[in-house]
Amino acid sequence: MTSLELVRERLDGFARRGACGVSPLYEHLASRAAADPEVAGLLTAAPEPFAQPTLLLAAAHRLVQAEPFHPLSNYYPSLGGTFGPDDDTWPLFRSFVLERADRVRELVATRTTQTNEVRRAALLYPALAMVKGPVGLLEVGCSAGLLLGLDQYGYRYQTEQAGQLAAGPAKAALGLHCALELAPGAQLPKIPKSVKVAAKVGLDRAPADLADEDTYAWLEACVWADQPERLRLFGVAATVQRKSPPEFVTGDAVADLAKAVARVPAELPLVVITSNTLHYAPGDEFVRALRELDRPAWWISHEAYAAALTHVLPGRTDLEAPHEAFGVLGLVRFEGGEVVSAKALAMTHQHGQRMVWLP
Questions:
Q1: Structural domain of residue 292, as residue ranges?
Q2: Regions in the chain scoring below 70 on pLDDT
Q3: Which of 8, 44, 78, 124 could cross-link with 225 by S-S, CB 3.0 to 4.6 Å?
Q4: Of 84, 110, 136, the domain-final residue
Q5: pLDDT at 1
Q6: CB neighbours of 108 closer than 8 A, spacing ≥ 6?
Q7: How many alpha carbons lie under 13 Å from residue 325 in its C-beta half-sphere?
Q8: What DSSP assignment string belongs to 223-276?
Q9: Neighbour-count burial of 193, counting CB atoms closer than 10 A to its CB (0-12 exposed, 13-18 middle, 19+ buried)
Q10: Are 88 and 123 in a shared domain?
Q11: What is residue 294's three-state secondary structure?
């Protein structure tokens, strides 16, 4: 169980920083849930690391999916709703979740937020391009493994200096767009037309089976309800993944890292990816596990600075993003138990819309 005080604090922070300016519906609901002990209390059924505001909102989204004719669906664009937040939104939401309190508690107690934000592939692509391929790719905290398909997606990077830069297969089923800005003193990264990936392995506590209808519905529910374009991209990426699924390993990000690494052929350069994963796992222990691997490894990290790069690049206060929705893209090289190189590449938006390349 998680304390009510902590849950309310997280809901308030999410409303003010995570959803503000990004999701009017979720900002509206989270801010009011933070002030409502009964609604916030539903989230206390989740274990503390997973008791995040997005989990409560995903549980509600899942139940509205199951009752698409309920008036609350009018406020869910993912279900065809066209209403923006108004005076009726919160009363409808509050009565809806409290009337189904047992089902909400069951969902938050047994599920975790599995965002599968495929747009983050556009952030990872330039970092992966810095490692000479073909590589063996291991995503930790992979959920359905959609980021492991990053070599199969098409990319359009909009820049002020060079216009639009294109990468990826010419006839890719999924196209992603990302604004690429330069910090003072930075130069545009090299973005090759392709990257070569020879093996794909995903490690997760509960890998998501896209063939399972209930699992698929839950993954859809984890997409923020007023961002239907994200839902569309998820569906296309899921179709791509089904045609060439990665190998999945069930296990813990730290304790079972070596087991998952063993599934990547030893002759391939090992590239480990984490993207908004270390919010749920201890970053210092994960870095220690990377150091203890019996082979060299690259680590592409897309995390908040305090969750990840602080453990290999301490003291970089310039990387402490002023907004919760932003993180840092990093590239770290481990060999013989040591950090051979570590670099912060870009400041990033959590959902892949843009990044600011660093000098």
A1: 118-357
A2: 321-325
A3: 78
A4: 110
A5: 74
A6: 42, 43, 45, 46, 50, 51, 55, 56, 59
A7: 18
A8: S-TT-HHHHHHHHHHHHHHHHSPPEEEES-TTTTHHHHHTTS-TTSPEEEEEES
A9: exposed
A10: no
A11: coil
Amino acid at 311: H
Name the domain boundary from 86, 110, 134: 110
Residue with tokens 């973005």: 191
Residues 106 and 77 in one domain: yes
**pLDDT computed for residue 113 by the predictor:** 87
- Edge-to-edge order in the sheet of strand 270-275: 163-167, 154-159, 175-182, 354-357, 338-349, 326-335, 297-303, 270-275, 135-140, 197-204, 247-250
67 and 125, same domain (yes or no): no
| CATH number of the domain residue 228 falls in | 3.40.50
Residues 295 and 211 in one domain: yes
CA 186 centroid distance within chain: 26
3-class SS letters over 162-217: CEEEEECCCCCCCEEEEEEEECCCCCCCCCCCCCCEEEEEEEECCCCCCCCHHHHH
Q: What is the dihedral of CA 195, 241, 279, 227, to 10 degrees?
A: 110
Same domain (yes/no): 181, 94: no
- How many residues does this entry show for the chain? 359
Task: For residues 259 and 261, give the distance between their C-alpha atoms in angstroms, rounded to a whole number.
Answer: 6
* pLDDT score at 144: 93
Do both 228 and 302 map to the same domain?
A: yes
| 21 DSSP assignment | T
Q: What integer pLDDT is reported at residue 325 of this predicted model?
A: 54
C-alpha–C-alpha distance, residues 75 and 93, integer Å = 10
Give the chain's domain count: 2
- For residue 43, the number of C-alpha atoms closer than 13 Å in the C-beta half-sphere is 31
Enter the pTM of the model: 0.88
- My answer on whether 198 and 262 are in the same domain is yes
Structure tokens at 35: 């002030």
CB 275 within 8 A of CB 247: no
Give the model's pLDDT for residue 116. 81
- Furthest C-alpha separation in the chain: 60
Residues 152 and 268 placed together within one structural domain of the fold? yes
Residue position matching structure tokens 């959803």? 19
Residue type, 142: C
Residue 103's pLDDT is: 98
State residue 279's pLDDT score.
82
pLDDT for the residue 322? 62
